[in-house]
Automatic annotation (TrEMBL):
<keyword id="KW-1133">Transmembrane helix</keyword>
<keyword id="KW-0915">Sodium</keyword>
<dbReference type="GO" id="GO:0046872">
    <property type="term" value="F:metal ion binding"/>
</dbReference>
<keyword id="KW-0472">Membrane</keyword>
<feature type="binding site">
    <location>
        <position position="70"/>
    </location>
    <ligand>
        <name>Na(+)</name>
    </ligand>
</feature>
<keyword id="KW-0407">Ion channel</keyword>
<dbReference type="Pfam" id="PF02537">
    <property type="entry name" value="CRCB"/>
</dbReference>
<feature type="transmembrane region" description="Helical">
    <location>
        <begin position="88"/>
        <end position="110"/>
    </location>
</feature>
<feature type="transmembrane region" description="Helical">
    <location>
        <begin position="60"/>
        <end position="76"/>
    </location>
</feature>
<keyword id="KW-0813">Transport</keyword>
<dbReference type="InterPro" id="IPR003691">
    <property type="entry name" value="FluC"/>
</dbReference>
<dbReference type="GO" id="GO:0140114">
    <property type="term" value="P:cellular detoxification of fluoride"/>
</dbReference>
<comment type="similarity">
    <text>Belongs to the fluoride channel Fluc/FEX (TC 1.A.43) family.</text>
</comment>
<feature type="transmembrane region" description="Helical">
    <location>
        <begin position="26"/>
        <end position="48"/>
    </location>
</feature>
<feature type="binding site">
    <location>
        <position position="67"/>
    </location>
    <ligand>
        <name>Na(+)</name>
    </ligand>
</feature>
<dbReference type="GO" id="GO:0005886">
    <property type="term" value="C:plasma membrane"/>
</dbReference>
<keyword id="KW-0812">Transmembrane</keyword>
Length: 116
């Protein structure tokens, strides 16, 4: 049953990410999606502890929806594209925002989820 939840929620996460990619160009959309996803995963990790929802639903949201919404592979491809295009300043800015920004958003989400 957990696989069904993950599969169904993955569809929605991927569709949300794709919708954002239509509105914004890479690498901007990847940064935004990954920061939102880092916050949402941090928040849900702590907040879900207090909910009596099925572990299948929680896993569907975190692994399924958020796992397909955010993607490290897109970040890696964006970095490679910037490198190959010799856009070193953009690469530095993108990477400098993505990695620490994701960690900061995850910590803020966990603290906020713990508080609510």
């Amino acid at each position: 049953m957990v696989y069904l939840w993950i599969a169904c929620m993955s569809v929605f996460g991927a569709l949300c990410r794709y919708s954002i990619s239509l509105a914004l160009h890479a690498p901007l959309y990847t940064i935004i999606v990954n920061l939102i996803g880092a916050f949402a995963l941090g928040f849900s990790t702590t907040y879900f502890r207090r909910l009596s929802w099925s572990s299948h639903i929680k896993t569907g949201i975190t692994t399924g929806f958020l796992g397909s919404f955010t993607t490290f592979s897109a970040l890696s491809k964006d970095v490679a594209d910037l490198y190959l295009a010799h856009h070193y300043l953009s690469l530095f800015i993108y990477y400098s925002i993505s990695i620490p920004g994701g960690m900061i958003c995850a910590v803020i989400g966990m603290k906020w989820g713990d508080r609510n």
